[in-house]
Structures are given as structure tokens and as C-alpha cells.
Backbone:
């Protein structure tokens, strides 16, 4: 029996399971999924969990059940490619014939002193819970800094504003305008929402140091009661420790078939993979679709296609609280209730389809 081992129950490996189970897994293949927690987590919704506007239960989706799916709960500590084994903390190693690494990402602090030690995170469900505890226990009038005005920072700032209108929230954006790589109309709409709702946006920010109750931005200092870091990601430590070729962001360089150039049995999916698009749940799912196609052909000893199709993303959708949103879909900017409705619909469909 061949062993397909999936590391991490994120968006990419959930799509692998969805495509193989229950009817498309060869009779001579079994799957082992390794994850620290006993459910798939909707990472795109961690901002709402941290802000306190949804419950913990709402960001969890059960893993599928199948007679040839074995789930191992534990922390991956290393990958022994010479012996084709996955090392797991306080547990026996798991052997594999084919391996799909989807261990996700961690915060990247860009060597800013104090950022790792004195800021909160929404990069894991555990850290999002801790961030929620901190933010929800803040007294009225507390000063909250959010560093990074990408999608996560925008959604966290807006959701926290609706959850805690008594807080003084500042959003630090490194660019000259919010979402500078998207149409200016979106930037203006989001910025106006923040102005109308009392969130201060500080553009062209350059955080040079974080102290227990202070953010240093250029030469200015801002007193803070809590700081949440959403200003960059990097592959998980296990992937960074692998002796493989990586790009400038530390993501693993792959062949067009999504495996390591020197090992056709090891694939990398999602945030750890070097791809021509920014990491996202949507990209991980698109990549997983192709990984399943490659696996099935290799299991059948069929030739691979000379080229793989280009991965095309549908766009982005973001929320501004529970009633407003924004997006860039089919090369068109959309704002307001329609965008928020679309995002809610996509989330509902995902949970219904995967749960």
C-alpha cells in the first residue's frame, strides 16, 4: 500500500482530500494527514475571531472521514527525505511514498526589534484566540496599533472597530495608500470608511522598533496598549529548515508539477511554495487541483503533460465590518454591500462544500 502523507490541514491539503475522497483514491493508496489541531481552520476568518465578532466554532471545519484516511495529531518537527519520513514531536515518525507539504506560514518581522516579543498575531488559531483575549479585555479608551494594511490588517481594523467602538485604533500602512497595487477607487473607499468610523490610517509608515507600550514609526513614537502584527509572512520554520532552493521570501522553488526539482515525490502547496502570485487560500486550492492531477498520472504511470495550465485567480474580496466590503473581481473594483454579500456567500459555500 502506497502512503500519501499530507502535512497540514489547510486550504491546499483540504482540496487534495476533496478531490481524492471518497471515489478517486486508487485502491493501493492510503492517506495520512498530519496536523496540530483536530479540524481544518478557516484562516481567512481569523481577523473576526481576534476581534470577537464570531465564535471559535465558526472558524472550524471537520476533516473528512474515510476508511483509508488516517489523521495524526501532532507537531511536525522535521522532514527526513533520505529515509522518506516525517518527524513528529513526541510521536513515532510517519513514513511516506509521496508527501505534500502544506504547513502554512508564520509572521515575518523584517528584523524589527521587539516586533516578535511585543506584538500579537492572527497567523494561527491559537494565536488568534490569544489576541482575542487581549483585545476583549482592554479597558475603554485603550490604544490599539495594527501594523500592516494588507487584507488581514484592513479586515481586523474594521471588525475591531465594530466590535469595540470605544477603542482608539491606528492602522500603520507602509504604502502611500491602502492596497496600492489595486485601483485607487478601492483605496479611497477603504480609507473613507476608516475616516468615517474613527480609525486613523498612518501611510508611508516604517516601524523601526516595538516596545512593550510604544511603537516607533520613523522618528515618531506612539503610545500603545496592544499591537497586532499583520505586516508580512514567511514559510513555517520546518520548511525554512529544509535544504532546498528557495526564493527571496524563503518560499520553496518547485518544478511546473509542484514537486521539488530533485525529488518528484515531495510536493509543496500554499504559503510555502514559490508561485507567481501572492499567497492566498484561493491560490493554494488552485495549486492543489494540479497536484492531484499530477499524483493520479504518476500513480497510473501515465506521462505528464508537457506544460501545466496557468493558475488563474478570480480576484479578492474583503470585508469592512459586517455590512460593507470591497473587492477586485474580473478586473473590476466593487465596493459596498454587494462586495460584503459576495464574500459571505463564498465563505458559506466553502463551509457547506467542505464540511
Residues:
Amino acid at each position: 500500500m502506497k502512503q500519501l502523507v499530507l502535512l497540514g490541514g489547510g486550504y491546499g491539503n483540504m482540496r487534495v482530500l476533496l478531490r481524492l475522497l471518497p471515489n478517486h483514491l486508487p485502491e493501493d493508496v492510503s492517506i495520512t494527514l498530519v496536523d496540530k489541531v483536530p479540524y481544518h481552520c478557516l484562516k481567512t476568518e481569523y481577523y473576526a475571531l481576534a476581534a470577537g465578532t464570531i465564535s471559535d466554532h465558526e472558524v472550524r471545519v471537520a476533516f473528512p472521514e474515510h476508511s483509508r484516511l488516517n489523521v495524526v495529531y501532532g507537531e511536525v518537527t522535521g522532514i527526513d527525505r533520505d529515509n522518506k519520513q516525517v518527524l513528529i514531536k513526541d510521536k513515532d515518525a510517519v513514513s511516506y511514498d509521496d508527501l505534500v507539504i502544506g504547513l502554512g506560514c508564520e509572521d515575518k518581522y523584517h528584523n524589527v526589534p521587539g516586533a516578535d516579543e511585543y506584538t500579537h498575531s492572527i497567523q494561527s488559531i491559537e494565536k488568534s484566540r490569544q489576541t482575542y483575549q487581549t483585545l476583549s479585555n482592554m479597558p475603554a479608551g485603550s490604544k490599539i496599533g495594527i501594523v500592516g494594511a494588507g487584507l488581514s490588517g484592513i479586515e481586523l481594523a474594521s471588525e475591531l472597530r465594530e466590535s469595540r467602538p470605544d477603542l482608539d485604533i491606528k492602522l500603520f500602512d507602509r504604502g502611500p495608500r491602502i492596497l496600492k497595487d489595486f485601483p485607487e477607487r478601492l483605496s479611497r473607499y477603504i480609507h473613507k470608511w476608516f475616516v468615517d468610523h474613527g480609525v486613523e490610517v498612518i501611510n508611508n509608515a516604517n516601524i523601526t522598533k516595538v516596545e512593550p507600550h510604544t511603537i516607533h514609526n520613523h522618528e515618531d513614537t506612539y503610545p500603545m496598549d496592544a499591537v497586532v502584527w499583520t505586516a508580512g509572512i514567511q514559510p513555517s520554520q520546518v520548511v525554512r529548515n529544509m535544504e532546498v532552493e528557495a526564493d527571496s521570501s524563503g518560499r520553496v522553488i518547485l518544478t511546473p508539477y509542484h514537486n521539488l526539482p530533485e525529488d518528484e515525490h515531495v510536493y509543496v502547496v500554499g504559503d510555502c511554495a514559490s508561485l507567481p502570485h501572492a499567497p492566498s487560500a484561493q491560490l493554494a486550492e488552485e495549486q492543489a487541483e494540479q497536484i492531484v492531477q499530477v499524483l493520479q498520472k504518476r500513480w497510473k504511470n501515465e506521462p505528464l503533460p508537457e506544460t501545466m495550465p496557468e493558475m488563474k485567480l478570480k480576484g479578492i474580496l474583503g470585508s469592512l465590518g459586517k455590512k460593507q466590503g470591497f473587492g477586485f473581481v474580473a478586473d473590476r473594483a466593487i465596493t459596498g454591500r454587494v462586495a460584503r454579500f459576495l464574500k459571505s456567500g463564498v465563505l458559506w459555500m466553502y463551509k457547506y462544500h467542505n464540511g
Summary: The chain has nine helices and 23 strands. The radius of gyration is 21 Å.
